[in-house]
């Protein structure tokens, strides 16, 4: 598979995520969106807000990497995910509606109203930001295949100690989004029995 084909698959996954979020959550009441199944669980809105906090970093990093690209067009180069990128993406992606590995969230990526219980997440703002970031990734995927994904690296939120290839980083962001959309869907299913 070449980079252009891989990018096309990633775009399809993003469009599916946007559609899923819109169909599942846009018409829910604010009270339902903020309902937590337990004290230590996140609400639907908190799941999406966590994605916004995470995706904001990666959208900037991806766009910066694409803008810096000085290599010739590499869109027809073959592409296979790297070992770390594939491992991290598969670890994140839910399988059959199950989130396999529980992971601790960094403090800076926790929803504001979890860090500060007096804060309030504004529903339409949270969903608009989610859509904005997903649309920005779609736009980035128009130009991304031109950069040589094996050479262009993105620092993860784990810092400089772990970098992913450009294509792997975008796949990871999508898998992370799928994970937390599934988490939000579980909250909705629990609510509606």
Automatic annotation (TrEMBL):
This is DinB family protein. Residues 18-184 form the DinB-like domain. It comes from the Bacteria. The lineage of its organism: Bacteria, Pseudomonadati, Bacteroidota, Flavobacteriia, Flavobacteriales. Pfam families: DinB_2. It comes from Phaeocystidibacter luteus. Gene3D superfamilies: dinb family like domain.
């Amino acid at each position: 598979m070449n980079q252009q084909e891989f990018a096309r698959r990633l775009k399809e996954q993003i469009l599916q995520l946007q559609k899923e979020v819109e169909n599942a959550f846009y018409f829910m009441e604010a009270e339902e969106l903020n309902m937590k199944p337990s004290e230590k669980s996140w609400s639907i809105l908190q799941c999406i807000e966590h994605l916004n906090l995470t995706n904001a970093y990666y959208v900037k990093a991806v766009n910066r990497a694409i803008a810096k690209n000085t290599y010739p067009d590499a869109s027809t180069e073959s592409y296979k995910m790297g070992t770390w990128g594939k491992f991290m993406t598969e670890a994140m992606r839910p399988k059959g509606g199950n989130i396999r590995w529980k992971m601790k969230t960094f403090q800076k990526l926790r929803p504001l109203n979890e860090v500060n219980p007096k804060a309030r997440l504004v529903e339409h703002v949270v969903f608009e930001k989610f859509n904005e970031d997903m649309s920005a990734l779609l736009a980035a995927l128009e130009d991304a295949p031109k950069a040589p994904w094996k050479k262009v690296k993105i620092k993860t939120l784990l810092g400089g100690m772990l970098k992913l290839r450009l294509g792997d980083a975008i796949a990871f962001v999508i898998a992370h989004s799928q994970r937390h959309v599934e988490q939000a869907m579980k909250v909705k299913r629990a609510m509606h029995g």
